[in-house]
Specification:
Elements lengths: L5 E10 L2 E11 L4 E5 L6 H9 L6 E6 L8 H6 L1 E4 L11 H11 L4 H14 L15 H13 L5 E5 L7 H16 L3 E5 L3 H7 L2 E6 L2 E6 L1 H6 L8 H8 L3 H15 L1 H4 L1
Parallel strand pairs: 3-7, 3-8, 5-6, 6-7
Antiparallel strand pairs: 1-2, 1-4, 8-9
Helix pairs in contact: 3-4
Length: 265
């Protein structure tokens, strides 16, 4: 029986009186790209931070490549490539200096690291910025540095929180291709995104997280079947499964009446 590369069971996380996760369960198998979709505040980022070991759960447990990130953080982190929603970088360093530092932490052979970093920098069209301070780079360039850092130790698990933020079309296409290649080679990807079209076309399985729980998961067709076959797009299916369709319709109606009353009349 195949063992999940990412697993969470009964994850609960409280921040004071605020419950970010309310018993979240999920599994990501080798070769799978699992898209985690949910409205703002649903718990996506908290779940990913628990899996990386950056946050400890209030209760429940998680494993990455067989290691509990709360109990064995060094081994768990060695198996993970992580991209945060907002890139976590040392902005006084240049991309070259930062990636050399990451290579030393990951214990990657320097010559092999230099070759891989050069290839990735060329692929992401950022060679000309490689010796500039990270603080001077655009959001998209910073995101590219974070992506390269997450990939070049060839982890078995990629945990990606809105990884396409700030990227141009060329770089987004490259990232999606690298994600697919990672899965084809037997790795696992947990991919948090608000971009429904990306999730629909890139992810092999999708989990809908709502109020701290995964309320439904499956392929797009499986999710659509749970709405009685209603919804032509993932966005429409998502709104039905989270019971937000009527609320969105009422909001749009109110906005039309408020801003465009004369035209409507």
């Amino acid at each position: 029986m195949t063992t999940p590369l990412v697993e969470a069971s009964g994850l609960v996380k409280l921040y004071g009186s605020v419950q970010a996760l309310a018993g979240l369960d999920l599994q990501v198998m080798p070769g799978e790209i699992y898209g985690l979709l949910g409205p703002n505040g649903a718990g996506k980022t908290t779940a990913i931070k628990i899996l990386t070991g950056l946050v400890e759960p209030t209760s429940g447990w998680a494993k990455v490549a067989g290691f509990d990130p709360a109990k064995d953080p060094i081994m768990a982190k060695s198996k993970i490539g992580y991209v945060a929603e907002n890139p976590i970088l040392y902005e006084s360093l240049s991309p070259r200096d930062f990636l050399e530092f990451v290579a030393s932490i990951r214990r990657i052979d320097q010559s092999a690291a230099n070759q891989m970093v050069t290839q990735l920098a060329k692929a992401f069209d950022m060679s000309q910025f490689f010796d500039s301070p990270i603080a001077t780079l655009s959001m998209g360039m910073k995101q590219k540095v974070a992506l390269i850092a997450s990939l070049f130790h060839q982890p078995s698990v990629l945990l990606l929180d809105e990884p396409l933020n700030g990227l141009d079309a060329r770089s987004s296409h490259i990232v999606k291709d690298l994600i697919s290649l990672h899965a084809q080679r037997g790795g696992a990807v947990l991919f948090s995104t608000h971009i429904m079209e990306v999730a629909e076309h890139v992810c092999t399985r999708i989990g809908i997280i709502y109020r701290g729980r995964v309320i439904s998961e499956g392929t797009f067709d499986q999710l659509r079947s749970k709405t009685g076959g209603k919804g032509e797009t993932l966005e429409e299916v998502f709104l039905k499964l989270t019971n937000e369709e009527a609320e969105v319709a009422d909001t749009i109606k109110a906005l039309r009446e408020g801003f465009y009353r004369d035209e409507i009349e």
